[in-house]
Amino acid sequence: MKDYYEKIQNAHVYEVARETPLEFAPGLSRRVKNRVLLKREDLQPVFSFKLRGAYNKMSTLPDDARRKGVIAASAGNHAQGVALSALQLGIKSLIIMPQTTPRIKVDAVRSLGAETELCGNTYDAAYEYACKRAEELDMTFVHPYDDPDVIAGQGTVAMEVLQQCKDSLDAIFVPVGGGGLIAGIAAYVKHENPDIKIIGVEPDDAACMYEALKAGKRVVLEQVGIFADGVAVRQVGEEPFRIAQQCVDEVITVSVDEICAAIMDIYDDMRSISEPAGALAVAGLKKYVEREQISDKTLVAINSGANINFDRLRYVAERAELGEQREALFAVTIPERPGSFKEFCETIGKRGITEFNYRYSDNEQAHVFAGIELQGGMSERDEIRGQLEAKGYPVEDMTDNDMAKTHVRFMVGGHAAGVDNEVLYRFEFPERPGALLRFLTRMGQGWNISLFHYRNHGAAYGRVLVGMQVPDSDRARLQTFLDEVKYTYQEETHNPAYKLFLK
What number does CATH give the domain 2-48+148-321? Predict the structure, then answer.
């Protein structure tokens, strides 16, 4: 990694990027019993580290390439990094963005002087179109992560960390998407001090580096999760993967709830709101500490960005307590008679009830959706379930049931009568005009929609729960429809939350 070490030391980033602080996180440090330091890349001019790699790449272009301009494909942070770098260098820039990109991000890129074109519903579609346009216009394509100059620019984060950290450093936790950031950090750190662990962190539903390292080769994920959109990459870059195989100690994965809890942790200590991808490293740090049972170590987490839509904070707040194991969700069946709710609360004891959803269904029993405050994490969650079952209550733990958390908790209203042949599916709809109409048009008029729930979370894709009345004889046609509509889906007909509250 000697070549990368020298490239990083000589990288051109500080004409536009800032040397961001490495700040002590007191509350988080007390809770995890280690010294936790946050590298504040959310304080860059475009609120993300991506500026470093983009500027380093573009500052090395020869004069003829600068005259022709640059092109990039991105839905957010890389786009703003390229646009600001181009503005600083006086270079024309064209950014290809998916049609699902939120308007706030498109406007941010345009405000930096870049031209934009919207193409496709995914980054992959925008990337293919951008490569085609680069050839047509003879412009230089600035890759977001699979380029040595971009990697070297991102590696300046590590150079600053090692200069700023006065203690003996044990591990650095790095968010991973395409791999440019962790490649630059790992190459620099391992050359200077091989004993410092480099640990990548990915969402468990977008773990392209984790799967690649496990397989010993780059793999293409069939689909990726949409919550941490800044790292929603189906295949890690070729050069980042080569470096990671040599220099990265491990990659761990975290859930959506754990990411939301990390966003809350960062806010509590810094009064700063990270985007989901930006909080990945903190989520991974917490998980690693719990797994390894380490204490009194110095650990650095890269807070990589803060480009989050305000309306997504509602969803983050809903899930943070679950990720912090401060709340559990249960579906509990209680008798339908006066005093039964009081008896249920007496069984719970002095724990706080955060949520109680119920609507009358029949004269015999009631299904309630209850949120209960926790002080003791997973062990207390198991204890509560045991107490309820000991009292004779049938109980389903919904804390890890994504459909229940995203949809059912907002829909509890009694069972539907006379709805035959109902099947239930979750879909990810692109957030653009016409997405629902396209779904309904493809579906045709053969089946009745018996249930529909959608909530906007400020992301590129909306999460939709749909019930349809489909006779058994039409199941093959239903599968054809699901294949043709090309929206990511998952059947939920057998989910216990559906059976208890909606069926």
Answer: 3.40.50.1100
